Amino acid sequence: MVLFGEYFAVAEGIALATMIFALIILYKICWKKKMFRKIVFAYFFFLISTGFAVLREYLLWDAMRIAEHACLVVSSSLFLYITYVAHRNLAGD
Description:
This protein has helices spanning 4-30, 34-59, 62-91. It is an all-alpha fold. The chain has one domain. The radius of gyration is 16 Å and the shape is globular. The mean pLDDT is 75.
């Protein structure tokens, strides 16, 4: 019988593989333009923070929690900057 935790570990592996595949697709599509390059960087830091979250669950290290939060701050800052620039361009300022 497979326990719930084993299902969860398989689902985490599938989710991380899907996120890495999405990063590769984003990289191939968006790398040529500078603004889109920031989207790739933001998604990369989000992916790294997710990896730290998974490692923290299995390793129980406080360093993983700190690294996860730092990556989330960088990722969300980049996404906020992208949103600000898009709003500024649409508003015509």
